[in-house]
Amino acid sequence: MSDQERANAYWKANLRLITWSLVIWFFASFGFGILLRPMLSGIAIGGTDLGFWFAQQGSIIVFLILIFFYAWRMNKLDAEHGVGEE
Question: Domain named Sodium symporter small subunit: which ranges (predicted)?
Answer without folding.
Answer: 8-83
